[in-house]
Design brief:
The chain has 449 residues and is an alpha/beta fold. The protein is 36% helix and 19% strand. InterPro entries: 4Fe4S_Fe-S-bd, DPD_II, FAD/NAD-bd_sf, FAD/NAD-binding_dom, Helical_ferredxn.
């Protein structure tokens, strides 16, 4: 057993990481599905979308061959509607709410139709929006992820001049660096960022990190308002012996390396254990398998009823050959010569519900051992508590506290997205950006400075 790169051929990598949700092959195929839509009044699909995309309207526009109008309907509500069509857990949102589910028929493939409407608009930078004349008000946005970009685009449409400060070398945040490569490609992420900024009035400064190269006090002084969309990204530690051995990786870094270095350059073990069962854990496990690991075992301390990921994601991991071990928690990582060789796990049982409402895992006293050469930690992410405290932001264990108007305790400083809620879906971050932009516009309009 060993951790190596280049396990597969170029053809195998291409096949393993090809688009998991391919688009409609023909316009007629899209029209067949669009014409199944019942165009419900008070549509449940629209209600279940955090950004309130008018689903019946955009689908009806497809049926009338009004692709530009359909794209405008989607992107007016969700400027990252193209990306969301690829990564949203639609089975628990719009498609999960489709009335066809009550008729024992397949739901309308809303995400696939949304992709059909937006892909060309994004690739070709259709001028769907017109920016109002500049108001000469300036807003700084920290973070070029879904929340920050959504906020920036909404503000720019209203004539606000926006500067976005991003610590990475590319925009897109989680979309670019934190999601499985077979769901959304780096090229699409780049196209989406370019489409958003093509409106004008948005300048992104890359390799600018809050607290290192750019400082909140300076932004407060030089801009009329500041929006913080810094997300989360610190991997939760297991706090068990052996966590510092070679071969122990956090899932965020593992996925980041795949996205930045490419498939052949990313090393993976032969026998891999993944700790956790959220969406990030699934992305790490499936990609480890697709990079050439012979065995991938997902270890989860609760049962399927309590898992954070969706059934669709779980099925994807199973189809990729990943094994799931339920009611198991890591106890110790064992190694030889500084390299991981085994993972010792405790067998658990479920006790009383905890603060999350899920039944708490309780140790039974029994253990078992997995022979592994790589352990990927995906037990959750933590906010940037040190950064938040250093900027005197009121917070709850690192999650920035805001009021009903997205305002922090610092005058003129607003926040939203994962840095506030601790981590939700991309579509939730987009809506948070819209809410933040509205709050900032209200703040600027009421300011006579």
């Amino acid at each position: 057993m060993s951790i190596v790169n280049n396990r597969l051929t170029a053809a195998q990598y291409e096949a393993n990481f090809s688009d998991i949700h391919p688009p409609f092959e023909t316009r007629d195929a899209a029209l067949v599905e669009a014409n199944r839509c019942l165009f419900c009044y008070d549509a449940p699909c629209m209600k279940s979308c955090p950004t309130s995309i008018d689903v019946p309207k955009f689908i009806r526009q497809i049926t009338t061959d009004n692709l530009k109008g359909s794209a405008h309907t989607i992107l007016s509500a969700n400027i990252m509607g193209g990306g969301c069509s690829k990564v949203c857990p639609v089975e628990k949102l719009c498609e999960g709410s489709c009335v066809y589910n009550l008729m024992d028929e397949p739901p309308i493939p809303i995400a696939k139709l949304q992709r059909f409407s937006t892909e060309k608009a994004i690739a070709e930078k259709w001028p769907l929006f017109q920016r109002k004349p500049s108001t000469h008000k300036k807003v700084a946005v920290v973070g070029a992820g879904p929340a920050g970009l959504s906020c920036a685009h909404t503000l720019s449409r209203e004539g606000i001049d926006v500067t976005v400060f991003e610590k990475e070398s590319k925009g897109g945040g989680l979309m670019t660096y934190g999601i499985a490569a077979y769901k959304v490609t780096p090229q699409f992420c780049e196209d989406e960022v370019n489409f958003i900024t093509s409106l004008g009035g948005i300048a992104i400064q890359y390799n600018q990190e809050l607290g290192k190269t750019v400082f909140l006090s300076d932004l407060q002084q030089n801009y009329d308002a500041v929006y913080l969309g810094v997300g989360v990204g610190l991997a939760r530690q297991l706090d068990i012996p052996g966590e510092d051995l070679r071969g122990v990786e956090d899932a965020i870094r593992f996925i980041y390396d795949i996205r930045t270095n490419g498939f052949p350059s990313t090393p993976v073990g032969d026998k891999v254990a993944v700790i956790g069962l959220g969406m990030t854990a699934i992305d790490a496990a499936t990609q480890a398998k697709r990079l050439g690991a012979s065995e991938v075992t997902i270890v989860y301390r609760r049962t399927q009823d309590e898992m954070p990921c969706t059934e669709v994601e779980l099925d994807l991991a199973k189809l990729d050959g990943c094994r799931i071990v339920w009611l198991a928690a890591p106890q110790e990582i064992v190694g030889e010569n500084g390299q991981v060789t085994q993972l010792i796990c405790s067998r658990m049982r479920l006790g009383e519900p905890d603060a999350s409402g899920r039944r708490s895992p309780v140790e039974t006293g029994e253990t078992f051992t997995l022979d592994v050469d790589m352990v990927i930690k995906a037990a959750g992410q933590m906010p940037f508590e040190e950064l938040v405290n250093a900027n005197q932001l009121e917070n709850r264990k690192g999650k920035i506290a805001i009021d009903g108007a997205c305002a922090t305790n610092l005058s003129g400083v607003f926040a939203g997205g994962d840095c506030v809620n601790g981590g939700k879906e991309v579509v939730d971050a987009v809506q948070a950006g819209k809410d933040g932009a509205k709050a900032i516009l209200d703040f600027l309009n009421g300011w006579d400075g």
